[in-house]
Design brief:
Layout: E1 2-19, E2 22-40, H1 49-62, E3 68-74, H2 84-101, H3 107-115, E4 128-131, E5 139-143, E6 148-154, H4 161-165, H5 170-176, H6 178-194, H7 197-210, H8 220-229, E7 234-237, E8 243-249, H9 256-266, E9 271-277, E10 284-286
Antiparallel strand pairs: 1-2, 1-10, 2-3, 2-4, 4-5, 6-8, 6-9, 7-8
């Protein structure tokens, strides 16, 4: 049996921080995917350690054993805050469970497995979710996004998720910005509830700015100013990564290309990657016949 599972990446997070000391993020899934293919009965091929660990932990969770071949196809940049590892891990968990046990894992089951490996983005949940990416204490659905397009930029370098989340100063820095993050989360939640892209953009921008005290992004203020001039609704950021996203509602896309050019002209520290769409999260599963399962 062959199973293919696609998981979306992200453009950072719409919001990230803490509420009363509990970590959370609001997911920002985009149509840029990782795809895991497994073939039951084959021998495990050499794969990235986290993905292999995801398979072994899924087997342990289901109390099963078996052989499967596994390949990962992804052009999601690594170490940029685009949920590349979370996409690989969540897709591998579901693909392994289906191929060997015929078992559809729930999103909560995937989260529980993934969180034993590393801090995890909730991009495999349907829609947009508020999710505790460290311990899984918060798992709250916020609804589906209105049409929003995101021009993705990279400020350079890489960030290791495990190292970042073990920073000794992280809890205190997050505590200091809790009021701004609470306001940002409320704006994004209201925007999702009402389908208002501008509210979502305002909340995301507020969170990106507040995160400068934790992981500084060069040119952020310039990008915000330029994007407003070209009709963007806001800026999202990888709070533990290196990407920035300029967010456009569907009706403001006429200024999109000019905005990208102006940011490139003014801010040599950032590099344009591609334009994606904010989507409802969730895994896409196909079987031998190519039909979704």
């Amino acid at each position: 049996m062959t199973i293919k599972v696609k998981a979306p990446g992200s453009c950072g997070e719409l919001v990230q921080g803490t509420i009363n000391g509990v970590n959370f993020l609001i997911t920002c899934p985009v149509d840029w995917y990782s795809e895991v293919t497994v073939v039951s009965g084959d021998s495990m091929v050499h794969t990235e350690p986290k993905t292999a660990t995801a398979v072994s932990k899924t087997f342990e969770y289901l109390n099963i054993s078996g052989n499967l071949g596994l390949t990962v196809e992804s052009d999601l940049p690594v170490g940029k805050g685009m949920a590349s590892s979370s996409a690989d891990i969540s897709a591998a968990c579901q693909a392994a469970a289906l191929a060997v046990a015929g078992r559809h894992l729930s999103c909560d089951e995937i989260a529980d497995i993934a969180l034993t490996i590393e801090p995890t983005d909730g991009i495999f949940y349907p829609g947009i979710i508020m999710f505790d990416h460290v311990e899984g204490k918060i798992r709250r659905s916020l609804g589906n996004p209105p049409p929003i397009y995101i021009a993705v930029f990279d400020v350079g370098g890489q960030v290791d998720t495990l190292v970042f989340n073990h920073r000794k100063d992280l809890a205190a820095l997050n505590q200091a910005k809790e009021p701004q993050i609470a306001n940002a989360a409320a704006l994004v939640a209201k925007g999702l509830e009402t389908g208002d892209a501008r509210l979502i953009g305002q909340g995301a921008t507020m969170s990106a700015v507040a995160n400068q005290s934790i992981l500084y992004k060069p040119c952020l203020e310039q990008v915000i100013t330029i994007s407003r001039d070209f009709g963007a609704v806001g800026i999202c950021a990888a709070h533990s990564g290196t990407v920035l996203g300029v967010m456009f509602s569907a009706t403001a896309m006429n200024g999109h290309e000019s905005c990208i050019k102006e940011i490139g002209r003014v801010c040599s520290a950032v590099v344009y990657l591609k334009t994606v769409q904010l989507i409802a999260g969730g895994l896409i599963i196909t079987g031998d016949d190519g039909s979704e399962r």
